[in-house]
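Subject: design request, 208 residues
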């Protein structure tokens, strides 16, 4: 098995989808978490200067979703057919488009909070309505078995619900999907044991 080293801040953020995929596949990896204070001296040593990165036997892969897609393919979680794979990719990109609307790195807390409130109140309902319609009464978002799209929904909605707990109350099917993902034994075990970290931009008093 290759030697895997995942580098990110001590946050769930853009690394958590890959941590879910490692947890589910049972592959061993180094969950390397760097301190924010050390970042300025580490940044210039990293190709493209952003994290997460995944080292696979020393080869550096950047971009969180390229990393996660690679791990999903390796673990049979990318979708069972080329069409399912495209649909899983599309759902991940749709959720990611929404997550990137938030000004995670904004320093002015008032501006940041206002932007978060605006997006959660005015833009989230459309995404949730569309995701709920896409899921329908199916067990998983794509095909007949769990894929990384279901994981991404759980990872991102955990962050969103921490910012606005009643966000998805109108969508019990989407909430039930979260429950199904979190009930997978390997995911349940990871959620139990993962470091309790803050959410950049969310409720900083809540250890998530
Ligand atoms: N699209 C990239 C975004 C990477 C990114 O912006 N990472 C942030 C942390 S979430 C980062 O490295 N920030 C520090 C910096 O830009 O110096 C991905 O998904 O990996």
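Subject: RE: design request

Done. Sequence follows.
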């Amino acid at each position: 098995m290759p030697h895997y080293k995942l580098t990110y801040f001590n946050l769930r953020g853009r690394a958590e989808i890959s941590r879910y995929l490692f947890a589910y596949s049972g592959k061993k990896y180094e969950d390397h978490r760097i301190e924010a204070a050390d970042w300025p001296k580490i940044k210039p040593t990293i190709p493209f200067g952003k994290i997460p990165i995944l080292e696979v036997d020393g080869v550096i892969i950047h971009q969180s979703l390229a990393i996660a897609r690679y791990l999903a393919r390796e673990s049979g979680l990318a979708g069972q057919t080329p069409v399912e794979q495209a649909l899983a990719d599309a759902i991940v990109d749709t959720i990611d488009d929404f997550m990137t609307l938030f000004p995670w790195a904004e320093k002015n807390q008032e501006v940041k909070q206002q932007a978060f409130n605006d997006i959660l109140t005015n833009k989230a309902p459309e995404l949730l309505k569309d995701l709920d319609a896409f899921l329908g009464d199916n067990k998983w978002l794509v095909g007949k078995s769990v894929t990384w799209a279901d994981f991404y929904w759980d990872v991102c909605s955990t962050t969103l619900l921490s910012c606005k707990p009643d966000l998805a109350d109108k969508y019990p099917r989407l909430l039930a999907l979260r429950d199904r993902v979190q009930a997978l034994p390997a995911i349940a075990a990871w959620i139990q044991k993962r470091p309790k970290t803050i959410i950049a931009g969310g409720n900083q008093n809540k250890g998530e």
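The two ends are 31 Å apart (CA to CA).
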